[in-house]
Amino acid sequence: MKRQYLLSLAAASLLSACAGPAGTYKVYWDSITTAFSTPADAEISRAQVQASRYGLLMVKPGDAPRAVMALAYLEHGQYKWISADDAMLITEHGRVVKSLNLTNDLLFTAATGPDPLSLDINTLIKGASWQRQLDFAKDRQHGIIARSDFRFQGEESISVLLQNYTTFVVAEHVTFGTDEHSLTNMYWFNKANGKLLRSIQQPSPSWPVFELTFLSNAL
Q1: Where would you tag: which of 32, 109, 155, 204 has the fewest CB atoms within 10 A of its CB?
Q2: What does the pLDDT look like over 150-189, one tens digit per residue?
Q3: Is 126 helix (H, G, I), strand (E, B) or coil?
Q4: In 10 A of CB 163, how many CB atoms?
């Protein structure tokens, strides 16, 4: 299976704690990583997530098995999730804004206005629009314009860590360039506290569909 689809955690590596620039925090990747070394779907319990000293993200890229990525850094509002095979996803307000060591890395995301995902959930469900520019590594695709329209889809019950949550569901319809390509991203926010629990998103039509479950937000 191609490396870009293998975000599975391999052996129990340890990320040494070290001081970084202001606003940057390095965290340990401790012994529970041994549970994520198989090519099958990763399994993790609520107790393991509660015992973890760092954030955990369940990732399903395309048709690949589910894997768990660990939060390696939190820097200037960006969450940097890493796997043992050195793949990294960087999220901001739950959105993938950059990647490292994938075949077609998302190099940069730039926008003049705030991402609607950063808004209070009650504001977001009223609807919003947003535009940004994206740079990708493959074929030097730079300055790709992506336009988003957000629409509230109602409420839905989902299960995370064997517990049911009532969520607000928001759809993001994205068009690229001259509207030749489009896709729809989905977001599930915990109705009780507004935290993002799950998303299905693609930075571009050339990427596989990524299902992200924010395990630590379910505690």
Answers
A1: 155
A2: 999 999 999 999 999 999 999 999 999 877 789 999 999 9
A3: coil
A4: 10
Separation of alpha carbons 52 and 49, rounded Å: 5
Write out pLDDT tens, residues 44-62. 889 988 988 889 999 988 8
- Assign residue 109 a region (left: φ > 0; alpha: ψ between -120 and 50; beta: otherwise): beta
Q: What angle do CA 177, 178, 180 make, to 5 degrees?
A: 95
Instruction: Return the residue matching tokens 């064997």.
Output: 162
Longest dimension (CA), the chain: 48
Cα–chain center distance at 107: 15
Q: Report the SS3 class of residue 61.
A: strand
